[in-house]
Amino acid sequence: MTNRIYDYDKICSTIIELDPSIRFAGVINERGRLVAGGMKKNVEPLENEKDDEMIFMELALRVKMRKEFDKQLGSVNFAMASRQRALAISFILNEDILYVVAEPDADYGVLPKKILDIISS
Hints:
Blueprint: H1 8-18, E1 22-28, E2 34-39, H2 49-66, H3 70-73, E3 79-82, E4 87-93, E5 96-102, H4 111-120
Antiparallel strand pairs: 1-2, 1-5, 3-4, 4-5
Helix pairs in contact: 1-4
């Protein structure tokens, strides 16, 4: 299976502009490092830089663990966590992870589908 070539910076900037509720759009590599994108301008982060590193590493580990069930269940389209202060959605891009964080009242029924459309275009 060949990997598709993505323009990570373009994807992240398009997603940031997609909906006013989106706070963050970034690509995390398999080691949990941010390689593209970031926080929307003029938005106050919910966590500090050290916490970001921990969140990204934990996300990379979770994605690796989910892949263990791809054979039985098929690959993951996206994963979402609804928290009190944020809605977090992750998508697989080759070996990397697109991580999107929105306000907790974002439309979680529509937002992932719009992001999947951006990724697949």
